[in-house]
Amino acid sequence: MDGIQLADTLSKKGFTIKSKTKTSIVLLVDGDRIKKMLELAEMFSDMDAKIDRSIPGSSIGGVVVGNVKILVKASGKTGGLDVEAAAISDLEEAVIEAIMLTGGPINVKLKGRIVKNIVGVEKTAGTPKSDFHLVDVNGKAVIHISHKKGSSPKDFQQWGGITEKSIADHPEVKYFEKQVNILYHGGVMPNGQSAFMKIKDNDLKMMAVYGVNYAKGSLDVNRVDVLIQGDPGLKLLSNGDFELTGSGHVHYLPEKMTGGFEPVLAIIYKGDRTQLGLRGGRASIYPMGGRSFKTEIKNK
After folding, report:
1. Which among 296, 291, 268 has a CA at the least distance from the CA of 281?
2. What are the tens digits of pLDDT across the range 184-203?
């Protein structure tokens, strides 16, 4: 039975098929993905189905049925909160797998240092720069993570907002505000319009990407250690430590964002917002390649 036929069987049993070929199937499921894999292995046990943790494309592996590989992905990944919940679930499963592999708490390599005795993942409370964090055996947050979906600049909305005082009061933000009010006079952002301005100050770029306390030098919810784009996971290194991975990109503080990921000040039309003195305007710091802008404002 090939992947197309297996997918038809799974569809009849109520599974949601994301994609299918003759040799691979991607399912979307709610809840515990590992339990779903066990269910699939049992379902196709008469075809010698086996769970293979090493299958690429998923932090937990997949199910092999003959020549067909079945990956199980979390559903509901279009909304921001759903994406975040799915990412936390992915990383939790990766940590559990790593602990099972090593027999105890794990060590995770960051840029220039090793963080020891990690046992879990938790959502960071409130709305700081950190979306979730890794915790150690004492329940202490030890690695703060910012998460973005997808793999390209177009896959996420923004690096960050401009309401934090250290960003809102920045001279380049003030200059951008002045210029957009000249461009869109009358205090109203026209429907369908947008504008951006390149940022000169590296400090402002770093605050947008890694948090306003990025230069603090100590653990802080507004200073993320790593930014992960896409589905997060862990990779076993030759010395027994682990490294954070993402199906998109992984960046460590203080790496700079370049190309389409370069942070720029931007304002777009959003009817229910009022920012930078413009009714209908939504301002933030975007990746430059995240969208097409109507107007470029030259920085002074």
Report:
1. 268
2. 999 999 999 999 999 999 99
**Cβ partners under 8 Å of residue 41, min gap 6:** 49, 50, 51, 63
How high is the mean pLDDT of the chain?
Answer: 92
Annotated domain spans of the chain:
3-74, 80-150+216-252, 154-205+259-296
Percentage of the chain lying above the pLDDT 90 cut: 80
Q: Which among 221, 204, 140 has a CA at the least distance from the CA of 170?
A: 204
Using alpha carbons only, what angle is made at residue 179 by residues 178 and 180, rounded to the nearest 5 degrees? Answer: 95
Other C-beta atoms lying within 10 Å of the C-beta of residue 96: 15
